[in-house]
Amino acid sequence: MTVAPPPPPDAQPAITDIPPPAANPAYAANPTIAADSVSKFFGQKVAVSSVSVSFGPGITGLLGPNGAGKTTLLRVMAGLLVPSEGSVTVLGRNPRKDHAVYRDVGLVPEESSLYPTMTGREYVEYAAILAGFSKPRLAASRALQEVSLEEDADRSLGGYSKGMRQRAKVAAALVHEPTVLILDEPLNGTDPVQRAHLIAAFRRLADTGHTVIVSSHVLQEVERMATRVVAMVDGRLAAAGDIHAIRSAMTDIPYRVTVSADPVRPLARELMAEASVDGVSIDGTTLSIQTNDLRALGSAVPALSHKLGVRLTAFNPDDESLESVFRYLVKGK
Amino acid sequence: MNAPTAIVRVTSRNVLGLRRLMGFGLLSLVPGVIFILATRSDTDFGKAETFTAISLAVFLPIVVPIITVVISSSVLGSERRGDTLSFLMLRPLSRYSIAAAKLASAIVASFAITAAGALLLGFFASLALNDFGYLSSLLVATLITTAGYAAVFMPLGYLTERATLIGFIYIFVWERVATAVEGLAGTSLFHIGATALVGLGPAGLDINTIEDNIGSLTPGAGGAAVKMLVVAGISILFTGWLLRTRDLT
Questions:
Q1: Tens of pLDDT along A288-310?
Q2: A78 at the B interface (CB within 8 A)?
Q3: Same domain, A182 and A264
Q4: Domain count for chain A
Q5: A109, A117, A131 ranked by CB distance to B91: nearest
Q6: How far apart, in whole angstroms, are the C-alpha atoms of residue B176 and residue B195?
Q7: Chain A contacts of B244, Cβ < 8 Å?
Q8: Do A234 and A322 belong to one domain?
Q9: Last residue of a domain, one of A233, A249, A265
């Protein structure tokens, strides 16, 4: 078991107490980015509290419910925010002081960061020029191909769908071929095909030794690409380690899923008989299911829908429930 | 194309939308049109007097500042609030070079419009008075005034969403006070541009009209240019410091 829930908040270890990297799953073996006791306060609000973690080559998922502090931690690590306490090093350098480090770092922020009057190609070319490329058009074409956006590259960004905008941001972050790529909810708004393209692109980067950090509040999304996961709750590190170990730790605890189907009652009746289901409530055409085994439920719902002729329109793990899972991990059983 | 040039190009394009270009373009041309209409049957003295009055009472203290304040405060402000500033901050560029490129963008975008007004007013005054010193002095004074307001309101736009409002209060309240109260002229950006106009302008500029509009001043384009360079330098250092030290939330 590599899941390592840290001690409760009031017993956070001092940096000197943290075991050496090999023994602590919060630390990567060959770190390229390291946060050392990082805290970030916005007035009275504590967004990140005493987080010590590092990231190395490969894809690491930064997981946590909305408001867990993922974006703040990523922005601190990217040098956009000054840590209130602690320090961050990227490739051994402080990104707040040594801006040359951005030759090797790319960030896809969660917010828009797009110029709506530009075309996709102009936007990515602009990123290439700012990175010092002598042939920005060539670099931009390569990056646009990487995210399958070449065909729409000469359209205005203002007319892009959300998924296309995400891909344009990824292309702009990739254009200078960074060693470290930080992606804040990069799959938001993308359709399944776009998602598959992006995940394949992130995997290719990871396979060639790049450090890729992907934040998400959807476990299944991270599961598809990352081998290592760092989980945050309420601004603290909740767990870190191998994704499968975290996944299995999460499957035997109460978990809530929302399912939309039509008709909904026959499905609810059948689900009540399933061993993995602890409870079902109906609200219109939506079922709220309490489960102790998410994986088993994930198999049972489509199978039963097929058997009953029920049209299944949505299967969504509940954010609140995810938060409770993380809290569960923090506390330990 | 290098990075600073690209920043100037992209920023100028972003802050000069079609509507802004049309609206401010028309505003900029109004003083020239007034001059043409008002001096059709004037004597040469009357024409010089009108040019001086329009330049020092309308164009340099109101038209140029309004255009420059609105454009300059959005150069960094709209990028910060539109979430595009992080795009720029994640590039391997010194914060001071970003600040300098942004100031250059503010000056270029604002001057592209204010220069059109200066050209119209200065050109017709020069034709009417047969002296192209009116045109050249007004262009230089417009550039210096534009640069001064841009240097002050670009960083202010980064700091607050109310930079434009503060700018209008400064233009319509403080600068009037600074004109009326002796000793406060040093706090007026428009006065620096005016000293350049009077210093470079032809002898035909009417001294009584000058004193009526801006009080007493020491003419001199060199001094005005040096003052604006100092203001621009401080602006770059201050903005670079802001970009280095403040959170980009």
A1: 998 877 778 888 898 999 999 99
A2: yes
A3: no
A4: 2
A5: A131
A6: 16
A7: 96
A8: no
A9: A249
Of A64, A91, A95, the residue nearest A185 (C-alpha): A64
Do A222 and A302 belong to one domain? no
Report the chain A residue with the minimal C-alpha distance to residue B81: A113
Bridge partners, A46 (sequence order): A41
The DSSP letter of residue A179 is: S
Q: Which residue has the tokens 């049309």?
A: B22
A61 falls within a domain: yes
What is the C-alpha to C-alpha distance for residues A274 and A259, in angstroms, rounded to an integer?
Answer: 15
Q: Is A100 in the same domain as A182?
A: yes
> Among candidates B150, B160, B244, B245, which has minimal Cα distance to B193?
B150
- For residue A210, give its domain range: 9-104+178-249
- Examine the domain organization and report whether A41 and A27 are in the same domain: yes
How many helices (H) and strands (E) in chain B? 12, 0
Of A219, A234, A249, the position where a domain reaches its end is: A249
Is the previous residue joined to A83 through a cis bond, with omega within 30 degrees of 0?
A: no
How far apart (Å, rounded) are the C-alpha atoms in residues A7 and A18? 11
Q: Is residue B7 within 8 angstroms of chain A, CB to CB?
A: yes
Q: What per-residue confidence (pLDDT) applies to B47?
A: 85
pTM (2 decimals)? 0.80
How many other C-beta atoms can be found within 10 angstroms of the C-beta atom of residue A160?
20
pLDDT over 80 at A332, yes or no: no
Sheet order of strands, A277-283 included = A277-283, A286-291, A255-262, A311-317
Residues composing chain A: 333
Residue of A nearest to B95 (CA): A99
The reply to whether ipTM tops 0.90 is no
Smallest Cα–Cα separation from A6: which of A36, A50, A60? A50
A183 and A319 assigned to the same domain: no
**Chain A residue with the nearest C-alpha to that of B9:** A126
CATH of the domain at A268: 3.30.70
Residue type, B127: L
**Per-residue tokens: A73:** 């931690």
The partner residue sitting opposite A115, judged by closest CB among B14, B245, B246, is B14
Polymer length in residues for chain B: 249
CB contact under 8 A, A129 and B2: yes
Q: Is residue A187 part of a domain?
A: yes
Q: Which of B86, B91, B248 sits opposite A130 (nearest CB)?
A: B91
